[in-house]
Predict the 3D structure of the following.
Amino acid sequence: MLYPEVCPLCSTCGVAPCQVCGSKVKAPGGVASAPPGVDGLFSLTLYEDLGAQLVRAIKFQNRRDSLRWAAAEIAGQVGMFSFDVVTWVPSSKASLRHRGFEPASLVADQVARRLNVDSAGLLSRRRDDVGQRTKTRRDRLDGPALRLRRSVPGPAVLLIDDVVTTGATLTTAAGVLRDGGARFIYAGCLARKT
């Protein structure tokens, strides 16, 4: 049985998010100042108001029906670049156990399909790493404990994360990817904090 998509913001049936909410969520997003080690950061929206509500619905209420729309928007923003691979920042083990899925992985897969490039899980978290969400801001500035899972297939990488707050996660991930051979790293995210 197929269920209709429902807007996670206003509960309208049809498309998720609906056209009205989608237009409110997108602005101002776009190109943001990139954290160290990242050549460019593209954000669907800001992590406030409706943008934060949408991301929380996806991550914590399993409202994945908006991911296809989000991936299309991110792919549209980065489409002027050519990438060898799309990868993502992996969720912590606790978050993965709790949610049962990795939002950034699902977005990366759909963005890669739209850009006609491969999607690959190039990064993994060390076993002793805890999620960034549970850390204080000061502790988050150190970034997560990441390692390279497999070789980087080319110099141009699009790195997907769900929410960018301090930028430390992207900086850490970019450093690991650069150590593995990446030369150009652009990042896309669902939302960023100002």
The chain is about 35% helix and 25% strand. Residues 103-115 form the longest helix (13 residues).
